[in-house]
């Protein structure tokens, strides 16, 4: 059992080699099958290893997070250092520059910034316009074909020509502007009224009326029963219903007057009692219109008296209930009365 001799060792190694040679060798199919099994085991182990590595990569350890934060801080410090160096460089450059060069450079920078701001505003407006058009396009399709847009409604169309600049040039040159041409007047000239205010008698002579009714002449309302009582002393000589017409001409000219007065002191066309429509505003701001009687003297020779006072010529004076009128030097009294309403 002690140490073996070299001869025994050689003999033992030879015997083991012979034993190995005697063992049966694997066939080619067995070797292919073993190779496939080894490949499948190797690929499955590779997949599991890559999965574990990806999981480990996703779940960072606190030390890796701290390292990434440190790197971010270092980058920020580097950027801040670059900015500080640029600022110091600019300040040194400003100190070295002359005042004129510094002001021109600042002006140029301001212009550039203004141009950049204008360009940004222009782009912003154009983008807003595009967005607004895109938003309004569905509603525009819903509008009827004949409807006008807001911009078309706001446009003011000038039908006439624009004013001439000759007047402004004349003033600047020390001259006078050209006077505008007189426009045609289509108002009443009075010729037709004068012709209509003439009455032709049977013998061919014409009498021109001194009075023409105004535009506001109206007949009194049937609810207002105005009457004129003619007194001579204490007796009632005549009663005249004034509601039948709007104008009553008093005088001696029998061919044209409505109320004949034969006293010699009374003119041929002495005075007129005229009913006129007037409007007045009450305390509530509403306009209330009424037809009222007025007295006007036609420039008579002996005048007209109202309640004992002489009335002015060619001027309307309102007549009220129970007013007394006298014409010329006649003693007859004309009393105006308004019948009480039932």
UniProtKB/TrEMBL annotation:
Domain FHA, first and last residues per copy: 248-311
Q: Which domain of life is it from?
A: Eukaryota
SMART domains listed in its UniProt record: FHA
Low complexity: which segments have biased composition?
187-198
Species classification: Eukaryota, Fungi, Dikarya, Ascomycota, Pezizomycotina
Chain spans, region Disordered: 1-199
What's a Pfam family this protein contains?
A: FHA
**Protein name per its UniProtKB record:** SMAD/FHA domain-containing protein
Record-linked SUPFAM superfamilies: SMAD/FHA domain (SSF49879)
Q: Which InterPro entries does the record cross-reference, listed alphabetically?
A: Cell_Proc_Reg/RNA_Proc, FHA_dom, SMAD_FHA_dom_sf
Q: Which Gene3D superfamilies match?
A: 2.60.200.20
**Bias regions of kind Basic and acidic residues — which residues?**
1-52, 63-99, 138-151
